[in-house]
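# step 3/5: fold
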Amino acid sequence: MRKGPLPLSIDLGRTRLRVCSALQGPHGVCIGAVATRRLPDGVVERRGREDACLVAAILEEAVAELGVRERRCVAVGGAPESVLHMMEFPPMTPFERRQAASLEAARWHRGTADMHLRLHPLDAERRRYALGIISAGVLEWRLRVLREAGLRPLAYDDESFALRRAFPGVDAVLDVASGYSRLHVYPSHGVMTFCESIGGESVTLAIAAALTIDRSTAERRKRILGAAGGGESGRSELVRRLGELITLARGQGLQVERVALAGNGGRLDGIAQDLSFAAQVSASFVIPVGLDAGAYPESVLRRLAPDWATVVGLASWSSVP
């Protein structure tokens, strides 16, 4: 593997963006720095022209903070904007395989004419593939943001693969975002993702209602004190529904024992212990691969590593054979 700078990794979420620089060293990927920015409400969902310019300006500022000259980049996405399906084909030519994948995508999803499809081999000998499906409008808007920020996009990865590279030693990764949560489980034949429409925002709103304060103040309080003194009902509901995701995965015969927590909501104080008890799993914060070889002190990693997990795992994209 050639040593030197790797493409920047970009995690453009609904409420926050994260940018990561990394190097390919003699012993693997080493994270250089991570920059994060909060995005104005609604800009990613609207996907307007002015929204793209605004997000590009914020992204350009975050890249400048890293202090690197690299402008190649890899971006990442996930459900509901993009979907992964695991498929196993009978013997057929590449053209026939693509046609079969298109037919299956049309059966699963409406409006496939407005979607980009991509097959990725997981086990070519056993003819096992991952079929990625993403809305053309979503992809084009995100690529526009990257280019207007002066970056050169090379690829668009799925977050489940990025998180697997970040946490190779667990059965599953639970990504708790602001308004949704995703459980990625990794059986031998690929990945299966389970989604729930609840995230860290539910705790924020519960704190705001309990203490009669505005949302921004409640969010700051949550980051410092968790749900202590208000928001316990929101926290309990979050843990209950996250536990149901694990139960759902187990009901499909999947092994879910060791779970790594990721996402901004995943660093809520005490949530790992509560989820471990409620779902009878070993849930914990794990330092993503690459960060443990970086320059950040342990106190910073404990606080921020869950929020950085996807973008750190994405940094290893070009180092994978």
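# step 4/5: annotate
The chain has a mean pLDDT of 86.
# step 5/5: archive (pending)
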